[in-house]
Amino acid sequence: MKSIDSYKTYSKGYDVRLIIYYIALVLIGWITIYSTCYVPDGTNAIFDFSRPYGKQLIWIGTSILLCIAILLIDKNIIQHYAYHFYLFCLVLMILVLFIGTEISGAKAWIKIGEFSIQPVEFMKVATALTLAKFFNEGKTAVEKRYGWLISTAFILIPIVLVMLQHDAGSALVFFSFILLFYREGLSGELLLLALIAAFLSVFTLKFNETYAIAVLTIVFIVVLLKDRTVKKKMQRDIIIYVISVLFVFSVNMIYENAFEAHQKERIASIMGKTSDPKGADFNLNQSKIAIGSGGFFGKGYLKGTQTKLKFVPEQSTDFIFCAIGEEWGFMGTLVVFALFLSLIIRILRLSENQRVPFVRYYGYGIAGIIIMHFFINIGMTIGLLPIIGIPLPFLSYGGSSLWAFTTMLFIFIRLNDN
Amino acid sequence: MESGFGRNRYYIIIAVLGILALVYIAVLFNIQILNKGYKTKANQNALRYKTIHPARGLVYDRNDSLLVYNEAAYDLMVVPAELRTFDTVSLCKVLDLTKEQVIKKIEKATKYSKILPSLFEQQISKEDYGFIQEKMYAFPGFYVQNRTLRKYPYPIAAHILGYVSEVNEADMEKDSYYKMGDYIGKSGIEKAYESVLRGQKGQSVVLVDVHNREMGSYDNGAEDVQAIQGTSIWCTLDMELQRYGEELMQNKRGSVVAIEPKTGEILCIISSPSYDPNLLVGTARPKNYVMLQEDPKKPLFNRALQASYPPGSTFKLANGLIALQEHIVTPTSVYSCSGGGYHIGNHVVHCHNCGGLNIYSAIQRSCNSYFCRAYYNILSNRKKYKNIDEAYTAWLDYMHSMGFAQKYETDLPYELQGSIPTAAYFDKKYNNSWNGNTVVSMGIGQGEAAVTPLQMANMLAVIANQGYYIRPHIVRAIGHRDSLNTQYSNKIYSKIDPQHFVTVLQGMKMVVTAGTGRGAQIPGIEVAGKTGTAQNPHGADHSVFALIAPANDPKIVIFCLVENGGFGASVACPIASLLAEIYLNRKVERTDLEKRMKELSFR
After folding, report:
1. Which in A233, A296, B95, B265 has the greatest CB count within 10 A?
2. Do B256 and B268 form a contact (C-beta atoms < 8 A)?
3. ipTM for the complex?
4. Best interface-test mutation with A: which of B7, B22, B31 has the largest number of A CBs within 10 A?
5. Mean pLDDT of B219-244
6. CATH classification of B239-599, choosing from 3.40.710.10, 3.40.190.290, 3.20.20.140, 3.40.630.30?
7. Quick one: residue A41, left, alpha or beta (phi over 0 = left, psi -120 to 50 = alpha)?
8. Which of A176-185, A352-361, B203-212, B265-274 has the lowest mean pLDDT?
9. Longest Cα–Cα distance in chain B
10. Which range has highest mean pLDDT (A244-248, B131-135, B230-234)?
């Protein structure tokens, strides 16, 4: 602790631990990207900028510049321009609908020369800042009904735009602000209700309506017996029961109509409803095989066959965790977990200790985003969640993602400095 | 740090986060450490164990002429476990298969093994190979394996060279070396020397990517096993002689066997009609095999080893030798031939009223009366043998000692034993009431005796060697032309003393100089011979000729039999003579005779 404190003086009070976690994750990311693109018996010059690992070096280099720039900005400017930044990103998000380039089904990229940027990545930072600023403008705004509505709108607008880009994964990420809302007073019961709804959806899709209603009815009878003395409670129970039954019936309809074919396939795959390991389940299976075949110590660096021979798709971006699991084994995956958990908990802890609420709001906002990315991304690679294409923060290949998460984290490091 | 509401939620959030992380780590622990199946699956995905099939050994003739070599071929293999939905239509189109056939082949492969490669389509053409190789990504689970196919520069010696084909289940059961899709020698030299010719399979472990492309060797080839090329073989055949013999025997049914008497090496072995060995190579083999099998001329039948014939007059040589050995006759003793032949009661073994003759003239003129009498006297020698059984058994022993009615069990395919009945057989047949005259037709090579052309040629070798033979065999050297095959080099002596062979050989010389076999004369070479006309109950007689040349220093013995060719002198004799000429002189001067013989047809 003492050494860190002494560093603090040198680093003007920037949180060194966060910076160390960041550097470690980015390095692991680059080393893994190098491995996924490594060609046995070929040339693999590190500074080959035509290859993903070469390009990632550029992103890392520019990210360092970005870090320095952010750490030099006046804190007040960050807070002051939060809404402007949000609006700017919104404009980009709208723009992308018209001039965007489609990559693997999502029209989410704006092409500038050789490079493409993905506005939604920056939208996440902007939303976190905006919500923090909005919350900070007065507890009243948050506590009042309109406050909740407006802050919800801040989230829903990007969700709608990102859905229009056919990027369901990114849309899902914006729900992570629930963490901030929860911390700042969102009813736990409401969250629980949402969780129950989610559980009912999954249950209905996995089995069928009859089973779901059977379970619901049993629970309903038990609750009803418990509440039999209070008429009001019984009325409430009946209303909830009827709504639940209707919800269950609508699940399949929503599933059939709201999702696109490939999404349905992925969901069915994760529910174990299809058993065609050569067809729809292929990616999921190969991803699990990659991680599973790593064993305890892994196959060794540059020796992963699943990733090197391209059995795992998108291995340098969304499926980068497979390469780590395969080449570094359980040890490697534990290290990644340790780093991410440390990073997240550090952010939460620092936020909690803030005297300036703005930083706390912002901290919870970005912690939610990182948590969402982390658990969705890894959940998808190990078969706990359907395949949802979002990157693993700091590790996945890609300029927009790295820049956005760097910005996100270093704004926090900058704000946290006091 | 503030306390209260927010602080509680902070702890709840940390707790939920921790639980979530634990669940994830538990899942990771399960798939990475507890479940070993993923490792296997990853290997199945990425590693392809390819068998390296070595080229089979080459086969040369005794003069280094190449008889069998190899040509590159490509087999399409399938690994059922790696199969995914593929472009069935274009695969069907390329390989000219129906969808049902493809499904059936995959089912068969799956039945054999899900993870081991099976032969899907053998020996695809170079064009198809190119097409499939280019579009490998469209056919996951398939790959092309390089193979070699047998190729024969001359369409000769098909029976003796044999052929190779894929192993069947019985082969795999017998020897675990063989795996589905491997090749094995099925007949002839290919079968007899399978272990020499096949070499040693190797294995390469290559990495295969998701597009079914091979991406180089696994672990820098640490698990690869080098294949060892098959060992080459020098066979005893003389390519020129074999080829010439097959030309002469074209459009005829019959057989020629030529042996170098000093070594037992088979110089040529012909069974006509024959076929082009190239027919039994590659994808056309099953179809061609059926065609050959159904051919009424039976080209697959190897007459030299598998056909049994009545030996005909050439058998008189053996009987003459036994009579001399048994002191029944001497070189100077005379039997007379009159009254149209040899009389047994009302039955007559016809002859040409040769008058009184000794053994030389008897051989020269192929006198039936002489050899019937001699044979009868051998079997009636009651001074030496108590009864007919003993006498006959003694005679049979002599015959066995000259190599009749037995297999040589060398490296020749499917030998027929041939047969000469035992005394017990006749005891039973004639109810213990028989004598020399009952079986006298065997004295002139008719009746119950059945021999193969190879056995007749071997008898000639016994005469040429004056008393012994070396088991006839087909492979001369293995690995190097000078590393001689000594497996079959021991001399097997007959029970006849050497001087008697001089007598019989003298008679055989006279056959050629002034007897029934004058057609066998070769300018500049002294030839000994014996004609034969084997009676054939099914049609015209078989023309037979036995030849030894040069008579004083035999380098080649030839037995020639042309089915339904009539008199020995007319067909078999000139053919044998032409063969001796080309072997000894390396050229033929009697081109008119050669032309006539080639044009003769007895089909």
Report:
1. B265
2. yes
3. 0.89
4. B31
5. 90
6. 3.40.710.10
7. left
8. B203-212
9. 146
10. B230-234
**The two structure tokens encoding residue A398:** 């890609």
| B38 interaction partners in chain A (CB closer than 8 Å) | 288-289, 291-293
pLDDT of residue A310: 79
Range of the domain at A107: 14-190+275-405
Which single residue is written with the structure tokens 């049902």? B100
In this prediction, residues B545-553 reach a mean pLDDT of: 92
pLDDT in tens, B272-321: 899 999 999 887 888 999 999 999 989 999 999 999 888 888 899 999 99
Instruction: Look up residue B442 and give its DSSP letter.
Output: G
- Whether A306 and chain B come into contact, CB under 8 Å, resolves to yes
Give the dihedral of Cα atoms B247, B248, B254, B258; nearest 10 deg: -90
Minimum Cα–Cα distance from B39: chain A residue: A293
Q: CB distance B25–A309 less than 8 Å?
A: no
Mean pLDDT of B573-593: 92
- A286 neighbourhood in chain B, CB within 8 Å: 45, 210
Secondary structure letter of residue B44 according to DSSP = H
The mean pLDDT value of chain A amounts to 86
Alpha-carbon B94 to chain mean position: 36
Which residue among A183, A295, A378 sits closest to B39, beta carbon to beta carbon?
A295
* Helix, coil or strand: residue B580: helix
- SS in 3 state form for A106-151? EEEEEEECCEEECHHHHHHHHHHHHHHHHHHCCHHHHHCHHHHHHH
Query: So what's the pLDDT on residue B473?
Result: 94
Q: Assess whether A178 and A236 both reside in one domain.
A: no
pTM of the model: 0.68
* Interface A:B, Cβ pairs < 8 A: 120
Contact B28 A382 (CB under 8 A): yes
Asked if A87 and A225 sit in the same domain, the reply is no
Of A182, A305, A352, the CB nearest to B45: A305
Q: Of A270, A294, A314, which marks where a domain is finished? A: A270
The answer to whether residue A140 scores a pLDDT higher than 60 is no
Any B CB within 8 A of A355 CB: no
The chain B residues in contact with chain A (CB within 8 A) are: 1-2, 5-7, 9-10, 13-14, 17, 20-21, 23-25, 27-29, 31-33, 35, 37-39, 41-43, 45-47, 83-85, 207-211, 215-216
Hey, which residues 174-203 in chain A have their CB within 8 Å of chain B? 179, 182-185
What is d(CA A23, CA A9) in angstroms, rounded to the nearest whole number?
20
Q: Which CATH class is domain B48-235?
A: alpha beta
pLDDT-derived band at A121, boundaries 50, 70, 90: very high
Mutate: best of A278, A289, A326, partner B, most B CBs <10 A: A289
- B207 contacts in A (CB within 8 Å)? 40, 305, 308-309
Domain total for chain A? 2
Q: How far apart are CA A73 and CA A88, in angstroms?
A: 19
Domain-located, residue A52: yes
Q: How does residue A279 score in pLDDT terms, banded at 50, 70 and 90? A: low
A340 and A241 co-located in one domain: no
Q: What pLDDT score was predicted for residue A139?
A: 56
pLDDT mean over A370-392: 91
Is residue A136 in some structural domain?
yes
- Collect all residues of chain B within an 8 Å Cβ-Cβ radius of residue A278: 83-85
A312 min Cα distance to partner chain B (Å):
8
Question: A97 lies in a domain?
Answer: yes
Question: Nearest residue of A to residue B7 by CA position?
Answer: A352
User: Over the stretch A71-98, which tens digit does the pLDDT of each residue have?
Assistant: 998 888 999 999 999 999 999 999 999 8
Residues A207 and A67 reside in one and the same domain: no
Domain coordinates in residue numbering, chain B: 5-35, 48-235, 239-599
- Which two three-digit tokens encode residue B520? 């066998």
Asked whether the predicted pLDDT for residue A306 surpasses 50, the reply is: yes
